[in-house]
TrEMBL record:
Keywords: Membrane, Transmembrane, Transmembrane helix. The chain crosses the membrane at residues 12-36, 73-96, 102-127. InterPro entries: ABC-4_Integral_Memb_Prot (IPR052536). This is ABC3 transporter permease protein domain-containing protein.
Length: 133
């Protein structure tokens, strides 16, 4: 069997597309799970937030605390994932002798963007759930 660039490149591209899709599915699943957990917590804590507004805490302070709380909840999984990806890319780079990782970093930034959108949407919906009407 003769292995040349014409047979390796299509296989690599198929593997790359499958890997990117699988990574995106995992990011979306993780974001959805964390989002649902946070929103369930918001529904449970709605009365406490209404009490805080009655006690004089401004809606701006409540909104800021919600964004900080949501950010912290989303922060740990993404930090662990980034550390894991960094070491995996480092080992891959050592094994393959100076591999160009620009594309991998762009994919990582895209995943971070998707995850950040989940975090932002969660905080917005959380605030709308607890806001007094």
């Amino acid at each position: 069997m003769n292995i040349n660039e014409n047979t390796v490149l299509p296989g690599f591209i198929a593997w790359l597309i499958c890997s990117c899709n699988l990574g995106l599915i995992f990011i979306m699943a993780t974001g959805s799970i964390i989002m649902l957990k946070q929103l369930a917590t918001a529904a449970e804590n709605r009365e406490q937030y209404i009490l805080l507004t009655k006690l004089g805490v401004s809606l701006k302070a409540i909104r800021r605390s919600i964004y900080v709380q949501t950010g912290m909840t989303f922060l740990l999984p993404i930090i662990l994932g980034m550390i894991n990806a960094y070491f995996a890319l480092y080992i891959l780079n050592v094994w393959l002798n100076q591999l160009d990782l620009t594309f991998a970093y762009l994919i990582g930034l895209f995943y971070l963007l998707v995850y950040s959108i989940y975090c932002w949407l969660t905080a917005r919906i959380y605030y709308r759930l607890i806001r007094p009407k």
